[in-house]
Design a protein that fits this description.
Layout (H helix, E strand, L loop, with lengths): L6 H19 L4 E2 L1 H8 L3 H8 L12 E2 H12 L5 E6 L3 H7 L2 H5 L2 E8 L8 E2 L2 E5 L3 H8 L3 E4 L3 H14 L3 E4 L12 E4 L2 H16 L1
Parallel strand pairs: 3-4, 3-7, 4-6, 7-8, 8-9
Antiparallel strand pairs: 1-2, 5-6
Helix pairs in contact: 1-4, 2-3, 7-8
């Protein structure tokens, strides 16, 4: 891979992977940038520019070998590597995440679930045991887990993040509506459903004008 790949390009690579993988599943052997752009509603010039950062390239007048590109992007994105995670805050959102089938395809395994509700502690969800939040640091460290998912209320999220990091987590997927303060070596992806809905609401409001 060439150095200096832009973050927006990195963000688009999973989309390209999805379409190459889908093409393989449908028996399509090659796909050019225009065909890929039509699937993603993106200009083919942008796709060619993004994929030019990769070591694996397409062939002029032939396009991209879908199986080769899917395999390359799987390796580059680490999608097939086994990844272990813990989740804190076992509510409805957590249940939806745990049951999402694509995570298993991408090698994600939930090793432990944490909650502070006595009625939930000791039970299992999708075969994973729910344990008290007080055990986060010790259990995360013992299991050598590097990914933490936070689906707690906002007021608990920072404390949970601190516990996860103390246990050795270096990547956090945060669904709590709060900006976390973390050390420089910890990577955080924030998912704020309210903000995303506000964007939709603004678009609808503009359409009324």
């Amino acid at each position: 891979m060439k150095s200096g790949i832009p973050i927006p390009t990195l963000n688009r690579l999973p989309l390209y992977y999805r379409e190459f993988r889908r093409a393989v599943d449908n028996g399509i052997e090659t796909m050019n940038s225009k065909e890929l752009g039509a699937r993603l509603f993106m200009p083919d010039t942008q796709i060619r520019k993004d994929l030019s950062y990769l070591d694996e390239q397409g062939r002029q007048r032939v396009g991209y070998d879908t199986r080769t590109m899917a395999s390359y992007l799987e390796d580059f994105l680490g999608l097939m590597d086994e990844k272990q995670a813990v989740l804190v805050g076992v509510g409805n959102l957590a249940r939806a995440l745990i049951s999402y089938p694509e995570f298993r395809r991408y090698g994600l395994q939930f090793r432990a679930l944490f909650d502070n509700d006595p009625d939930k502690i000791g039970s299992e969800l999708a075969g994973v045991k729910i344990v008290p939040v007080e055990r986060i640091e010790n259990l995360v460290q013992r299991l050598s887990v590097r990914i933490g998912i936070i689906t707690t209320p906002a007021e608990a999220a920072q404390m949970v993040a601190d516990q996860l990091i103390a246990g050795g987590v270096i990547a956090i997927w945060n669904f709590a509506p709060i900006t976390l303060k973390v050390p420089a070596h910890v990577y955080v992806v924030n998912e704020n459903l309210a903000i995303d809905f506000a964007k939709l609401s603004h678009h609808v409001q503009k359409a009324k004008v």
